[in-house]
Amino acid sequence: MRCSVLFLAAAFALATAAHKSYDGYQVLTVKVNDAQKLDTLFEWQEKGIDFWDNLNSLGRPMRVMVPPALTEDFPAFLRDNEMSYELTIPNVETVFQEERMVQMQRRARAMLARSISPRATADFSYYWQPAEINEYLRQLGTEYPNLITVEVAGNSYEGREILVVRISNTGFDGTKPKIFIDAGIHAREWIAPMSALNLIHELVEHSAENTDLFACDWIIIPSVNPDGYQYTHDSDRMWRKTRSVNQGSSCRGVDGNRNYGYRWGYGTGISTNPCSDIFLGRQPFSELEVQAVVNELARDAAGIRLYLSFHSYGDWLLYPWGYDRVLHDNNEELDLVATIVANAIFQAHGRQYTAGNSAILLYPAAGASDDFAAAEHDIQLSYTVELTGGGPRGFDLPADQIVQITGEILTGIRAYATYVAANF
Questions:
Q1: What DSSP letter does each residue of 43-95 carry, written as one string?
Q2: In which compartments does the protein localize (predicted)?
Q3: Is the terminal CB of the chain with fewer CB neighbours within 10 Å at N or C?
C-alpha cells in the first residue's frame, strides 16, 4: 500500500509539472445590467479574459477567468464602470490539482480492473482519454456486431483516429429516422464526450432496457477533437481549440465551432486572431476534425431528422440561427421540441434546462455546426446542447458527478428520440 501511495504521489508531481500552471488565475462572477457596458466588457476577451459563461443576457451571473497580469486592472475596470462582481475561485490551480489527483487515482483503478477483465466495460467514475474511448468503441464493435459498427470518420491533425459509430437493431435499412450526435469539439468541455459515451453504452450494453430508443437509428462521434482533448489532460486543462499549426503565428489551433462553412466569418462572436480561443481559422472547413463531421453528415443526410452537438456548460438547449439574432423558419417546432426535452429532464431530475435561439439567449457566433446542419442539409431539428457545468467551478465538473449528469441528459435524449420517432 505504501508503495502504491508513493507511486501515485510521484506520478502526480510529474503530471502537475507538465501542465500549464494556473497559479494566480482567479475566477470572478460578474453581473452587468447595461447593454453598452456589456459590449465594453466583452472587449476584454481579446486582452486575455476568459469568459466561461459569455452570456448575452443582462443581469445574469457571468463567470470569467482572470490571468495574474490582469487581477488588478480588470477589477478596477469593473469598479470604475459600476459592474458588480465577486471572487468565486481565488486560485484556479488548486482546483485543477485536485481534479488531476482524482483522475489519476480513478484511472489507475479502472486500468487495473480492465487488466483483470478485458471485455468492454464502462467506468464512468473518471474522464476517459482518447485512446480509452477508441478502445472501448472497438471492443463494443467486436462484442456486439449486430448492434454497432465502428468506423474511422477521419484523422485529427496529430493523426489520432476520429471514430464514428452507427447503432441500429435493423441494420440501417432506411426504415427509421436517424439521429446524429457529435461531442467534444471544444477540448476543455470534458462532460460532452462522456455524455455521448454513456448514450452509446446504454444503447449497446443495455439495449434490452432501451428498446424505445431503437425506434431511431443513431450516428455518434463521441470525440471530435481528440488532439485538443488529450492536450487538456496532458498540458493545459483550459485548452479549447484544435491543435493545428497556424502558418505565420506561434499560436496553435482553431475553434472548430467557428470553422463550419455556413456564414463563416460573419458578424460577431468570432476572431481572426490565431491566439484567440474563438479563432475561426484561415478558411472554412480548414480543420480535419470539422471535415470528419461534415463528411459523416453528408453520408447520411437524407435520413437525419435530428442533429445534436454536445458542449458544456450552462443547461441550455440552443437552436439556429446562431450567426445572428435571426429566427429559423422552423422556430416554433424547434422551440416546442426543446421545451418538451427541458420539461422531461426537469420532471425526472429537477434540473432546469433553458430552451431558445442561441444568438438571442447567449451571443451571436457564426460558423457553428448546428447552423451548418440546418442550412446545408435542411435538418429541421438542429441543436447545441450545453450540458451542466461544475457549479462555481465551471468547466471543472467533478468526476463524481459524471454519472448524474450523463443520466440526466440521457432522459433528454430519450425525449428527443420519442418526438422524432412519432413525427418522422
A1: GGGGGT-EESS---STT--EEEEE-GGGTTHHHHHHHHTT-EEEEEES-HHHH
A2: Secreted
A3: N
Whole-number Å distance between alpha carbons of 159 and 352? 39
Mean local confidence (pLDDT), 355-361: 92
Architecture label for domain 124-423: 3-Layer(aba) Sandwich (3.40)
Q: What's the rounded Cα separation, in Å, for the pair 280 and 263?
A: 11
Angle (nearest 5°) at CA 247 between 245 and 250: 65
Report the distance separating Cα 302 and Cα 32, nearest Å.
44
User: How many Cβ atoms from other residues are within 10 Å of residue 352's Cβ?
Assistant: 10
Per-state percent for the chain, helix, strand, coil, to nearest 5: 45, 15, 40
Residue 3, pLDDT > 70, answer: no
Would you say 80 and 380 are in contact if contact means Cβ atoms under 8 Å apart? Answer: no
Residue 220 backbone phi and psi in degrees, to 5: -135, 130
Question: Mind giving me the DSSP string for 168-203?
Answer: -SS-S-SSS-EEEEEE-SSTT-THHHHHHHHHHHHH
- Reduced to 3 states (helix: H, G, I; strand: E, B; else coil), residue 81 is coil
Report in angstroms the alpha-carbon separations of 85 from 189, 228, 233, 392, 407. 25, 31, 30, 14, 33
> Cell numbers at residue 382, please?
438542429
Please report the DSSP string for 376-399 in residue order. Answer: HS--SEEEEEEE---GGGTT---G
- To the query of whether residue 386 is one of the catalytic residues in this protein, the response is yes
- DSSP-assigned beta bridge partners for residue 282: none
DSSP class of 277: T
Question: Which is catalytic among the residues 189, 205, 287, 386?
Answer: 386
Is 170 exposed, middle or buried (CB count within 10 Å of its CB: 0-12, 13-18, 19+)?
exposed
pLDDT greater than 80 at residue 176 = yes
Q: Where are the domains positioned within the chain? A: 26-90, 124-423
**Higher-confidence position of 199 and 12:** 199
| Residue pair 75/86 in contact by the 8 Å Cβ criterion | no
Q: What is the pTM of this model?
A: 0.94
Across 12-110, the runs of DSSP E, i.e. the strands, are: 26-31, 50-51, 62-66, 84-89
Identity (one letter) of the amino acid at 168? S
Q: Is the pLDDT of residue 104 over 70?
A: yes
